[in-house]
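We now fix the convention by which a protein and its fold are recorded. Think of the row as the fold of the chain written in a discrete alphabet. Here is one such record, which you should read through line by line.
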Amino acid sequence: MPLTDTKIRALKPTTETQVIPDGFGLHLAISPANKRSWKVRYSIDGKRSWITIGQYPVMGLQEARKERDKINKQVSDGIDPGQQKRVEKTTRIRDRGNTFQAIAEEWLESQEAHWTPYYYRQTTSCLEQNAFPIIGEMPIRNVTAAHVLNVLKKMEERGAHTYAIMLRQWISSVFRYAVATLRAEYDPAAPLKGAIKRPPVQHSRALTQDEIADLKSKIDAYGGHRTTVIALRMILLTFVRTVELRMAEWSEIDLESALWTIPAERMKMRRKHLVPLSSTLIPLLEELNTISGNGKYLFPNMRNPKTCMSGTTINRAIEYMGYQSGFFTGHDFRATASTWLNEMGFRADVIERQLAHVEKNAVRKAYNHAEWLPERRDLMQKWADWLEKC
């Protein structure tokens, strides 16, 4: 039967590479390390061959089917797709010569096997959208620090400070690669470290209802990794600290009792914390379990699954969705929940306990992590219901 996105997400890696057919030659290969590749099997001149056309989920199911149809058309015209791909790559590199874009693409190809699909796409997209239009066609030896600074300043002017800082690092890597392959003498991006400054971040800014609605729609439309989408929705639903979310372990989650127990050593105040799980969050965690449930972390690092999600992933995703750097951050979800839960009439003590804030009144400093748990369950469910209506 043809594949669907739901079926694909439900598939789990095994000890051997799985090759699942979709139809008309298209297959999804799943390695033991859970790397998912689209492959097309074709036959030309009596010889059967495979060609890899992309990585899932960077290339979605519908896009993969379109690529398969193009390959089948080539075969029907007597063209070997694999050979054609190699010829096109060689021609592209030769025709473009030693321009910045040509060497950057060569560098990207050398790194692709070592990066996650998301990081590869992020790096490629940033170079294509910002650097290539300005310095891409220039011979790399002619690119100066002034040229690179011009690229970065244009990004700074539109508020993409974080991506400008990252782009400087990627441009610097391209030049170091060019130096190592004897096609450049130095790295003009190196002296520009610190040229772009991140703007002051306004912490603890509560979002308005309109901003919440806009954020929800952008999260739903976000084209990044599915685990990042679930992380964004989970932090909005639970309003835990970003570090508590990204370091969450499956051993802490009890779906039957709908409770997440965060151990004291991972809490800012070193006190065990309970997070009731709403009926909205449970299906998301069940879906996430099909993706990362075989590992330690709910949100593993894409480059090194043995570690947790990077500390910058949430904020980068917010920027990638179109928000200006510093407009709001992962920390602002807590201020948002605190503000609106007080507006909804919940007791301040219950809100503060769910936020894992320390009671400063010495008379009331005794702490019980399960205190007011029934009220907190009600609070978390009504918070989820309120968010659904935004």
